[in-house]
Amino acid sequence: MHKDLVAALDIGGTKIAGALVDGGGRIRLRSRLPTPAHEDAETVMAAVATVLGELSRSPLWARARAIGIGSAGPVDASAGTVSPVNVPAWRDFPLVSRVALAAGGLPVVLVGDGVAMTAAEHWRGAARGCRNALCMVVSTGVGGGLVIDGRPHPGPTGNAGHIGHISVDLDGDLCPCGGRGCVERIASGPNIARRALEHGWLPGPDGDVSAAAVAAAARAGDPIAVASFERAAQALAAGIAATATLVEIETAVIGGGVAGAGEVLFAPLRRSLRDYATLSFVRGLTVAPALTGADAGLLGAAATASRIARNTGSARTVGRC
């Protein structure tokens, strides 16, 4: 069994997670710190360096052959820079070069967090064995990534498949990205809750106004909560069907906190897909919940790093879903 490892970083607005991961997708060592998201750029980088330092002090570090980074975006993999919306001090921050310096010159590869989740699901999750897939994170935002011809397709900058900013309502609300009627503006957790509140939904005695609370109300039969999830499902279905029409994906894998609503989301999503995915070559499109959970960012970063580090024999043959 091959002994090499890769290092992985999962960088977001709330946490900086690191891991050493083996060729079977097993996490051998972890490190994690809160993201000092509202501090200056060097303070954030210092937290990344601390996480890397904890990994590098392990005897396992000697087996690390590359580092993969999955970061909140936008990212620019071609330039090695990141500008996460939720880390204001990092604008065109040269993350790849700084991580390479902190890690002693190991090869470093960067992708957006949606692409990382996609790589994880294709390697160890619900898209395993798929030649063409869309994987999505539906949470406080909506991100995604593509698998095309059996390989994750990050695109030139590491952002390909960012379905959250496809417009599905030409006269819809203005999105923070500058567009109108984006999938994210309708289907993200905060927007599901916003829509329910605007239409008269009342939270319970605990005052919880999260999407999870709206999901609980929908499961209990609240018609406004049900309608808010149906609207979100419709937006997701329109975006998924558009993507399938362009690149002939076979399955859409959905993770993130909103996917935790279960059939409250997936049942209307499957119904709406029948309305939008009507052409003969997309009618067989399936939808599945993600399987890699909270480790998706780390596993996806590791999968991406493995591709630049690997000199081991032939890769697993990838078939259809």
UniProtKB/TrEMBL annotation:
Signal peptide (from-to): none
Q: Output the SUPFAM superfamilies linked to this UniProt entry.
A: Actin-like ATPase domain
What Gene3D superfamilies has UniProt attached to this entry? 3.30.420.40
User: Known InterPro entries for this protein?
Assistant: ATPase_NBD (IPR043129), ROK (IPR000600), ROK_cs (IPR049874)
Instruction: State the family it belongs to.
Output: Belongs to the ROK (NagC/XylR) family.
- According to UniProt, the name of this protein is ROK family transcriptional regulator
Organism encoding this protein? Streptomyces inusitatus
Q: Which domain of life is it from?
A: Bacteria
A Pfam short name = ROK
